[in-house]
Amino acid sequence: MRSGHSGSSTIEGIVIVGDIGTRSSRVLLKYTMDATNAKRSDTVDKLRKLFSDPKFCPEPISAYIISHDDQHMSEYLADGEKRLEFVSGFSGSAGTLVITLEKAFLWTDARYYIQASEELEHPFELKETDATSETPGQWLAKNLSSGDRVGADPALFSCSSWKELRSEMRKTGVNLVEITTNLVDIIWLEKPPAPSNPVVVLPPKYSGLLNLRGSDIEYNPVFFSFVVIHVNNGITEVQLYCKSSQLPTPEIKEHLKLEGAKIEMHQDGTTDVTRTVHLGVPTDYQKECFTRVLKGVIALNTARFPQKLKSYVLDAFARRALWDVGLEYGHGTGHGIGAYLCVHEGPMSISWRPRPDDSGLEADMFVSNGTTHLII
To answer: Which of 65, 78, 266, 338 would staple 152 via disulfide (CB 3.0–4.6 Å)?
Structure first.
């Protein structure tokens, strides 16, 4: 709180005006919208105007879905791909925006409820995501009318997620349509340019399909490219496309022709680590939660199961001790790790939500154990 003159104080956007210290004090509460909120509202209004612009939407749409992801379904993004953050102010690594003609919502998971409540600005409202809550597609199916059209950029959705959205909305006659020109890009006048950093070559023994790494996304050793794999006359070919500016030296270009290019150093595995450190004296409740999380970690680490078991089946091992006393956590339990790649690597993941590309767990796979409980 900041004290002002003549009995005026300001508390996070609420202005209190009054003659403090007198019986006849008059206090007027007035909510003020700051410049940032006004900017978000203006951005949403600009998007809504495009809903009926025939240059971008051949037929008018009633809602627009903004995915967090880029064209590679990346969790962490280059600055110019952060469309969801540009529109809403939310900077978390997972989420979906739905903007209708009258409403604007963000769906995200339990990792980001606190962050979203702090970062979201008018006119956005938070929708929580768990096993029992409505998905964006289900909400749109229930709140729009039969025949309404919902637009989205298909390049920013996986095939499976697009089909799921379309299926959910079709149940009530709502149509999901492709808007191939991203509407956010139309109004994002100062969008950061795409990065074009040099590519790094790893020895093939450390890699899978490709032994290339980059730095186009902060803290993620990847670069923007597309690989096309096809069989031609029985010969398998791998074709790589990326910007020529990312191949600045003859040595790096030459590796595309030769196998086994050598470098002096190899970056090791990549994952995230979360630890809880109590600064004070924990309560009995906190001790109980910590103990039950530990039981879940041990149960998952010591689980025995057959080869090719779908990884989501193991999720209950981690949660059982919490479930016994009515506790839960709203995010997944475990994920694959990268070899000089990204923090979260698939297709294996231990979560209550099955993955269509989960091929089952096998020996020598690395999967994290993130059993937890969030006390808010």
So the answer is: 65
- 184, 86 contact by CB (below 8 A): yes
CB 123 within 8 A of CB 44: yes
Q: In what order do the strands lie in the sheet with 14-17?
A: 2-3, 8-11, 14-17, 28-31
Cα separation, 260 vs 276, in Å, equals: 43
Integer angstrom CA distances of residue 21 from 30, 144, 371 = 20, 53, 53
pTM: 0.69
- Reported as type and span, the H/E element at residue 47 is helix 35-50
Alpha-carbon gap, residue 69 to 157, rounded angstroms: 7
What is the Cα–Cα distance from 338 to 266, expressed in whole angstroms?
13
CA 92 centroid distance within chain: 6
For residue 166, what are the CA distances in angstroms to 72, 74, 169, 303, 336? 20, 22, 5, 38, 29
pLDDT tens sequence across 279-331: 999 999 999 999 999 999 999 999 999 999 988 899 999 999 999 999 998 88
Please name every residue paired with 64 in a beta bridge, in sequence order, or none if there are none.
99, 151
**Cα–Cα nearest to 104, from 93, 94, 89:** 89
* Other CB atoms within 10 Å distance of the CB of residue 189: 6
| 73 torsion bin: left (phi>0), alpha (psi -120 to 50), beta (else) | left
Exposure class string for 25-55: b at 16+ Cβ within 10 A, else e = eeeeeeeeeeeebeebbebbeebbebbeeee
Is residue 273 a contact partner of residue 225, using CB atoms and an 8 Å limit? no
Domain parsing of the chain, residue ranges: 2-32, 36-187, 200-266, 270-350
May I ask the CATH architecture of the domain 36-187?
A: 3-Layer(aba) Sandwich (3.40)
Alpha-carbon torsion 183, 186, 191, 197, what sign?
positive
The average confidence (pLDDT) of the chain is 81
Q: Give the ranges where 154-274 is alpha helix by DSSP (H).
A: 159-170, 183-187, 250-254
CA pair distance 209, 23, nearest whole angstrom: 78
Task: Give 275 or 137, the one with higher predicted confidence.
Answer: 137
